[in-house]
Specification:
heterodimer; A: alpha+beta; 5 helices; B: elongated
Chain lengths: ~220, ~675
């Protein structure tokens, strides 16, 4: 399971956000360059199509592949009150022929996208991963070199935290607490809920950039 | 005064510890005095004490920080923001404590506790409630200023006048504040409280951003706007991380309908060109196969064959005697026959090529592609129910033919071939694993063929009518191999050895099959020398053609010295010769049969619907599925049926296998076993 929130930030403020995250997390940022292929199962695998995402990490010298299956989100009254989305997730590393394997199984490519940005992984009450990426689409199939951003002026910020069924409450609170720190720059919400940008993000970004990270909590 | 109170330095703060001390003093006195109930309600003495101690610690901490900074780095200044924050907290806490004390300060009085030379002089000053002189003077002057004009009036009037003054001053302050606020607004300084309205987005900008946000979120979460239309889905060039993953030809595979056929013909056996050829040969691409003239195939290799198979009227005579010559009873079209011959010739060519350089070495190798061919053909046949034509290759038997099928000449060659076969096949023994007898046969069936056959020749476009050669798939399933020295149970191993045999009508074919079987068994023996018993039974299950080939358990054959022969019983439909030593069925030994086993070993050959299975029971389960017997109306494989379905054989065979397993556990020849098998299989 994982807890996830998403938000958007204007591209001009991404640097300030990076400064803020660096200050909050204390870890260096990691480059993110992921080629995400979303495969949908064919009819031979069942009536209901299932979706599996293959992530190819291109930031490493040798691309590493990960299989990721996003499950259903937690539902119910309790889930409504939680400000983060808790959903089941299955992730696994795979060898490089995983794409061929899935094609052989009957999966078909639904869409693909390229995510370029950075990420911070740290522990703050729970293991939290903050990813700030520019989502790019490819005009031609698999043409990662020709990727253009879907929305040039806006980047996506995603905060995920792995959780288990028994401790997801703690993880949720940790993520919520951390999200408050990012309030000056961006609004965070469950995926699918539109938030808009923070009006004063510019001022906050300016202060972040000018004081060189002196902005504290 | 308590020294702790003195260090705090705040006069009001002195009130905090002394009450505690006072209370403690009171309690320490012999006459225990307690605070009155009312005071206790208002003042939580212990809590007050704790707060005072906490406050004391906080202040001392601040002082410590200052000291550290002063000592370590005199030029550095502390983080004033933090210090101020802490100080504000401390002062707030102090204020709270004092407030609480003030509520009950009336009941307490401060008195000096420890008077010594230090504080003796200052104590009176601290204890006095009289204002300091200068403070006193100051107060008097202020009072005079205030009450200058109204001191002579009565007190209530004075009070009223003072109130009026206060109100005036208050109103003046309010107006002043308003003016200041307006000025702040006009000058954009913001309110004093700090609620910055900040820059607001105008509607258009907000809408645009919202739209972009929607796009982005939809793209990331649901893939909206990222789907490339189908016509653009051909990748012209793959990025580096996909180049090795996706063969370019498969780039479009995922979009189109996957026929389910595996494009690669991989082989679990040692891949060599022979295998590939063999795969292709059996891959059902018979139509596309080059058809070398039969005469150019390994005819010279077969010169030593005693008698070439009889050509039949309706079959094109192949240059080699190994060609599958359909019987008159066969209803093969010339095309089919040609194709059969073509395939057979292909096989012969392969084997001829193999046989020339190093017959021994090649034999084993050729066994492998044949096995693969068999597998492929098995699958093909299985997947196309109702295939009409059978394939019947006898390539392996060719090898043995080269080894002089005659008894005298055969044996050394056989031994050699067996040995070589053993060496070659040994490496592949472990490649197959099977679960159970039933699993074997279910695996042999179309759906689960892949379990047994690790490599499935991809093409399934084999059309039944085009099949030329028939094949035998020998599946050796060992579930228990008991060593001679200890009861070492070896886990189940599947060995599939494909034999290609060209179906012929006559006994020679039986001989070939038996030769192959013998070779295989000998190989098994040779490799598993510790095998106590290998019981091989071959029973043919077709109602129309049945092979009873039984021999006693084969054990510890010394390949160098012991001749291995198989006597196959000829039934009324097909020529099957049976080892008379088996003793369960009347046997008519065929003097032509050159294969003689020195041991009894029974080969359960289950053939139904053109399929033969060799079952090696008791230690090794030996099963051969023979396809494409249709070329011959009999053949000792019992594969003469063209019209019979493919699936039924397997099931029957499965039953047979299981029964055979049961029946032969004791290694004895069950006289009625074959009969039972026949019945069951029917």
């Amino acid at each position: 399971m994982e807890c996830v929130v998403q938000g958007i930030i204007e591209t001009q403020h991404v640097e300030a956000l990076e400064v803020l995250l660096h200050g909050l997390s204390g870890v260096p940022k990691e480059r993110v360059r992921v080629h995400e292929l979303c495969l949908k199962s064919g009819p031979n695998l069942g009536v209901v199509p299932s979706e599996v995402r293959l992530l190819c990490d291109l930031a490493q010298p040798t691309p590493s592949w990960t299989i990721r299956h996003v499950g259903g989100a937690m539902r119910g009254a309790g889930a409504e009150q939680i400000s983060v989305l808790v959903r089941t997730i299955v992730e696994s590393k795979a060898s490089k022929n995983v794409l061929h394997y899935f094609y052989t199984l009957g999966y078909k490519l639904d869409h693909e996208l390229l995510k370029i940005g950075f990420a911070f992984r740290f522990h703050r009450g729970a293991q939290i991963i903050v990813t700030v990426t520019s989502t790019n689409k490819m005009p031609r199939l698999h043409a990662t070199d020709e990727a253009v951003p879907v929305t040039p002026g806006i980047q996506l910020v995603e905060i995920t935290a792995p959780a288990a069924a028994d401790n997801y409450n703690d993880v949720v609170s940790a993520v919520s607490a951390f999200c408050e720190y990012l309030a000056p720059l961006l609004h965070l919400s469950k995926p699918g809920h539109s938030t808009g940008i923070v009006a004063t993000a510019g001022a906050a970004a300016a202060s972040l950039m000018s004081s060189g990270g002196g902005k504290t909590l | 005064m308590d020294p702790a109170a003195a260090t705090l330095g705040a006069a009001p703060a002195a009130g905090a510890p002394p009450p505690g001390a006072a209370a403690g003093e009171q309690q320490a006195a012999p006459r225990v005095e307690r605070l009155s109930a009312g005071v206790q309600q208002q003042l939580n003495l212990e809590g007050m004490r704790a707060r005072a101690v906490g406050l004391y610690k906080a202040i001392s901490r601040i002082l410590e920080d200052f000291d550290v900074i002063a000592r370590t780095n005199p030029s550095a200044s502390p983080k004033w923001q933090d210090v101020l924050g802490q100080f504000s907290m401390v002062s707030m806490e102090l204020f709270n404590i004092v407030e609480d004390i003030k509520n009950v300060s009336k009941v307490f009085v401060v008195y000096p506790r420890n008077v010594n030379a230090e504080n003796a002089t200052i104590l009176p000053v601290m204890l006095s409630s009289k204002l300091l002189p200068e403070m006193e003077v100051e107060e008097t002057t202020k009072r005079e200023q205030l009450l200058s004009g109204i001191t002579n009036l009565p007190v209530p009037t004075q009070i009223e006048k003072l109130k009026v003054r206060i109100d005036m001053i208050g109103s003046a302050c309010e107006t002043a504040e308003k003016v200041i606020a307006e000025c702040r607004k006009s000058y954009g300084l913001g309110t004093r409280q700090g609620t910055n309205l900040g820059p607001t987005l105008d509607k258009a900008q907000a809408a645009k951003i919202q739209e972009q946000e929607g796009l982005l979120r939809a793209a990331v979460n649901y893939g909206e706007g990222l789907r490339v239309p189908g016509d653009q889905r051909q990748p012209q060039s793959l990025p580096s991380h996909l180049i090795e993953v996706l063969p370019l030809g498969d780039g479009a595979q995922n979009f189109g309908d996957s026929s389910g056929s595996y494009p690669k013909n991989t082989s679990t056996f040692a891949p060599n060109n022979v295998n590939n050829q063999g795969n292709q040969a059996s891959g059902g691409q018979l139509l596309g196969r080059p058809a070398p003239s039969p005469g150019t195939t390994g005819t010279p290799n077969f010169e030593n064959v005693s008698t070439p198979p009889m050509p039949y009227a309706n079959s094109p005579r192949s240059g080699t005697n190994m060609m599958n010559t359909p019987s008159p009873q066969q209803h093969l079209t010339p095309q089919q026959q040609r194709q059969k011959l073509m395939q057979a010739s292909q096989q012969q060519q392969l084997h001829a090529q193999q046989l020339r350089p190093s017959a021994a070495g090649m034999l084993a190798q050729s066994a492998l592609p044949q096995l693969q061919d068999l597998q492929g053909q098995t699958q093909q046949k299985l997947q196309v129910p109702g295939q009409q034509q059978m394939q019947y290759n006898q390539a392996l038997s060719q090898q043995f033919h080269n080894r002089q099928m005659q008894p005298g000449r055969m044996q050394p060659g056989m031994a050699q071939s067996q040995l070589n076969q053993g060496t070659q096949l040994r490496s592949h023994l472990g490649q197959f694993t099977g679960a159970a007898n039933s699993a074997m046969f279910s695996a042999a069936q179309a759906s689960s063929n892949s379990q047994m056959m690790a490599n499935i020749p991809g093409s399934q476009s084999l059309m039944p009518q085009m099949q030329v050669s028939s094949e035998i798939i020998l599946c050796i399933y060992s579930n228990r191999i008991i060593s001679a020295y200890d009861f070492q149970v070896i886990t189940v191993k599947w060995i599939k050895i494909k034999m290609k045999m060209l179906g012929v009508m006559d006994l020679r074919h039986h001989i070939r099959l038996s030769t192959v079987l013998v070779a295989l068994l000998a190989y098994l023996v040779e490799n598993w020398s510790s095998i106590l018993e290998i019981c091989v039974r071959i029973a043919e299950a077709s109602p129309l053609s049945r092979i009873n080939l039984e021999a006693s358990p084969l054990s510890r054959i010394n390949l160098d010295t012991d001749p291995i022969t198989i006597q196959i019983k000829r039934t009324k439909y097909i020529g099957i010769y049976r080892n008379p030593k088996c003793g369960d069925l009347e046997s008519v030994p065929d003097e032509k049969c050159p294969l003689i086993l020195n041991r009894h070993w029974s080969i359960l050959l289950c053939a139904k619907n053109d399929r033969l299975k060799f079952v090696l029971l008791n230690s090794v389960l030996f099963s051969a599925a023979v396809f494409g017997m249709g070329a011959t109306n009999s053949s000792m494989m019992g594969m003469q049926q063209q019209q019979q379905g493919v699936y039924g054989n397997m099931q029957a065979g499965a039953q047979n296998m299981q029964q055979g397993m049961v029946g032969l556990q004791n290694q004895t020849q069950n006289p009625n076993f074959t009969q039972q098998r026949q019945q069951n299989q029917q």
